Amino acid sequence: MLSVDPKKIPSRLDIALDYITGEIAKGNLGPGDKLPNEKELAQLLGISRTPIREAIKTLAVSGLVETRHGFGNYIRKDEGLPAMPLAMFQLYLQSSTPEMLMELRFVFDRNCSELASLRRTDEDLAIMRECIDRLKRLSDDPNSPIEELLKADLDFHRAIYKAAGNPLIAVVADFVLNMVAPWVQKSLEVSGKWRAVGLHEHMFEMIRDRKTGDLSRESVEENMEHFRTSLLK
Question: Cβ(176)–Cβ(108) under 8 Å?
C-alpha cells in the first residue's frame, strides 16, 4: 500500500500549479480569462519566474492553458464538452505514481465490467471479440509491433467502458487508461502476450454470460494482479 509523507514540502512548481488550478477550481479564472503575467505571479507567490514558466508549460500541455504569443496566457475555451475539469483531472494523473494509477484503474475496470455484464449488447460483444482475436493474431506473430499489441489490449478495455452504458464513465475511464498505457505495454513485454489473451478471454466470458458479483470481480482482479506484478519486474 502506498504511503504518503504528510510532511512533504511542495516544490516551487507545485506551488505555482496549485495556485493556478485552485483559482480555476474556485471560479476566479474561467474559460477565456487571461492569467497574470509571470512577474506578477512570481511576486504574488514569492517564487522565481522559472517555476511559473514551467507551470504554464505544464498547463498548456494538459490543455488547460493556451499561450498567445505577444498577448499572454489564457484559460482555454472549449465549445464542446466541458473539457476543463477533465484536463485538470489529467494533470493530476500525470503527477501520480504507477501504484496510485493502478488502484484507480482497478476501481474503473471492476465497476465497468459489472455494468457491462448487465448492459452489454450483441454489438458490444462483437467489438470485444474482435479485439481479443486481433490480440491473438498479433501474439502469434513474433514480429508484431508492440504498439499494435498495446492498441488491441486498450481497445478491448475501451469496449468494456462503452458497454457500461454511461458516456461520462467511459470518458473518465479512458483518461485513466491513457495514463497507464505505458505500464500496460510493459506488462505485455514482461509477462507475455498470451497471458494477456487468456485474461481478456476470462473477462469477456464473464460479460458475455452476464456474470456479476464475485465471479466478475475475480476476472478483473486476475487482470490487475498480472498488471501489478509486471510493474514490479
Answer: yes
d(CA 110, CA 107): 5
Interatomic CA distance for residues 211 and 52, integer angstroms: 51
Distance CA 149, CA 145 (A): 7
Indicate the domain borders of the chain.
12-83, 96-232
> Taking a C-beta distance cutoff of 8 angstroms, is the pair 8, 38 a contact?
no
pTM over 0.85? The answer is no
- Cell of residue 11, nine digits: 516544490
SS3 of residue 54 by DSSP: helix
DSSP sequence for 17-48: HHHHHHHHHTTSS-TTPBPPPHHHHHHHHTS-
Q: How many CA atoms lie within 13 A of 24 on its CB side?
A: 24
How confident is the model over 168-199, as pLDDT tens digits? 888 888 878 877 787 788 878 876 677 888 88
Residue-by-residue DSSP string for 147-216: HHHHHHHHHHHHHHHHHTT-HHHHHHHHHHHHHHHHHHHHHHHHH-HHHHHHHHHHHHHHHHTT--THHH
DSSP output for 79-114: SSS-HHHHHHHHHHHHTS-HHHHHHHHHHHHHHHHH
Q: Which CATH fold would you assign to the domain 96-232?
A: Four Helix Bundle (Hemerythrin (Met), subunit A) (1.20.120)
Q: What is the CATH T-level fold of the domain 12-83, as seen in this structure?
A: Arc Repressor Mutant, subunit A (1.10.10)
